[in-house]
Amino acid sequence: MKKTEISSVPAAVRICLEGHRLTILEFEPGSTPTAEAAGRRLGVPVGQIAKSMLFKGKDGHFRMVVLAGNRRINSGLLKRATGVKHRMATAEESLAVTGYRPGGVCPFALEDSGVEILLDESLCQYETIYPAAGTDASGVPMSAEQLQTVTGGRFVAVTAAPDEDAL
Questions:
Q1: Domain containing 126: what range?
Q2: What's the pTM?
């Protein structure tokens, strides 16, 4: 893994992560748009890729769930954790609400967006996880605890059983 010059990472994300002394890894544009692609690129199990998914609740509020890359959201558990039913946000909503396009959605620098950050407990099984840094060609090695500190998110249990955790 070679760290390249940081140029495409949004400035707010860069400032946020540098303020927490975290390293941003950048790769070839478009090389890590999915958890599977990111796992292959980083040479780690898919579960270590922290995918960020934006949902819109029936109450009109947006919530971002960050989960292990080999997991899927269980809608019933998400409703239990938040008290409302949700649907996936559209690509247009994601960009409008977070400023990030699908493939690069991340939980960083969202303090002014009104988005609630939910961290699935599936992340805690890994010493190192890799959320995106606002692009489809980036990752940030960190622990689940560091992710909670940086995002102010709360831990919840909202995922179904994992898919096979292979490279």
A1: 11-156
A2: 0.90
